[in-house]
């Protein structure tokens, strides 16, 4: 695989939309749409976690009630989301027509996790991605993408920043719930302190054949790390 990094070209003059440069307008519009989707999905995930907590607490209390009527109160441990967590999501459809939706986020412990839902089970489930560690920035931006190899194989990718703002990446080959291992991007590039992250992967046979993660460097320049499969 060839790993390259490119700087976005800056044209001499660019048409504007609503007073903004064309590229800036589309970036802002995309960000607004992503935020709307994130809020909607976050509400669904949060509601699912709340219901799970309620059900777990009820089940635990019931299981700890003895035959003589006495009980010992035990509350299931539910780790809340970080209050300012970023959200990233991917979706795809299996060969059998099952649609899959995965949402990635940061927990209050600093760990990274995901919630998954599909049209077959119609139930949200939560799964660990990366445990809390010095390599995960608190409140890190998060980006996720998948890469379609063929009808029976996909790679799943997650990106975030560490406390030094190095771009970190994990990859899972054909296993959306993991395990994940460091990708070729991991630790190779440094973003600016306020940089967001965005990523792209070929999601279908006719899509652009590339993997890419975008970030803003310390000089406020847009950078694109492109990972082109051979």
From TrEMBL:
SUPFAM superfamilies: Fucose-specific lectin. GO terms for molecular function: carbohydrate binding. The keyword Ion transport does not apply. Residues 56-73 have a biased composition (Low complexity). Residues 50-73 are annotated as: Disordered. Keywords: Lectin, Membrane, Transmembrane, Transmembrane helix. Signal peptide: none annotated. The chain crosses the membrane at residues 25-45. This is Putative fungal fucose-specific lectin protein. The lineage of its organism: Eukaryota, Fungi, Dikarya, Ascomycota, Pezizomycotina.
